[in-house]
Design brief:
- The protein has 11 helices and 5 strands.
- It has helices at residues 2-10, 13-16, 27-30, 40-50, 67-72, 74-77, 91-95, 100-116, 134-141, 143-151, 179-198; strands spanning 20-25, 56-59, 84-88, 121-124, 154-156.
- It has a 5-stranded parallel sheet, sandwiched between helices.
- The protein is globular.
- 35% of the residues are buried.
Length: 202
């Protein structure tokens, strides 16, 4: 159905001129456990349309991906370059306890590659589980604000802000938001998505 919808959209000249925003992340952006309408892409696209933001979302997120996975498949994904990118990787690295320096290096390489295409980036931050220890938490939590400053990227500091560990807003695993949790995330992200679209204006 997604492919059919894309073909239909491209067949309409007015829609063909709209910019494309790539969602590039893991299961949190892929919408694991949710329907297409309930997931991040479906709810964000609906919110954008409600606010009159003229841009089409394309989801290239893969459940389970680490930052290394995202970097490895980036050039293939950019074969048909989008106009902007919403980048949300790093949660799986943290859950696996991978070194923050490695996570930072991978994200830095991804953003640098996107910059080479002239694509504005909205970086969706992640925070470390406090049980991983003070040194790890400090190093991991600094990754996203540091990279946003260095690259001039837009930053949403914590993707799961207001949702993390709340049983009412998460699926039973308490790691993936349910439809209500996604709605909270989308509401928080929308001002930055609007700014991202504005950066596409000539």
């Amino acid at each position: 159905m997604a492919l059919i919808g894309t073909i239909a959209a491209l067949a309409q000249p007015a829609l063909a001129e709209e910019p494309t925003i790539l969602l590039y992340g893991d299961s949190l952006l892929a919408g694991l456990g949710l329907s297409a309408d309930e997931g991040f892409m479906g709810q964000l696209q609906a919110a954008m349309e409600d606010q009159g933001l003229e841009a089409n979302l394309v989801n290239a997120s893969v459940s389970g991906d680490t930052t290394a996975d995202g970097l490895a498949r980036l050039d293939w994904t950019l074969g048909d370059p989008p106009d902007a990118v919403i980048l949300g990787l790093g949660a799986n690295d943290m859950l696996q306890g991978l070194p923050p320096a490695e996570v930072r290096s991978n994200l830095d390489a991804i953003i640098t590659r996107l910059e080479a295409f002239g694509m504005p980036v909205l970086l969706l931050g992640m925070m470390a589980n406090r049980g991983l220890g003070g040194d790890y938490v400090k190093a991991f939590d600094a990754i996203y604000p540091d990279l946003a400053r260095e690259h001039g990227a837009l930053l949403y500091p914590f993707l799961l802000e207001g949702v993390a560990l709340d049983p009412a807003l998460n699926q039973p695993d308490l790691r993936h938001p349910n439809a209500e949790g996604v709605a909270v995330i989308v509401a928080g992200v929308m001002p930055l998505v609007e700014e991202l679209v504005q950066r596409l204006d000539p």
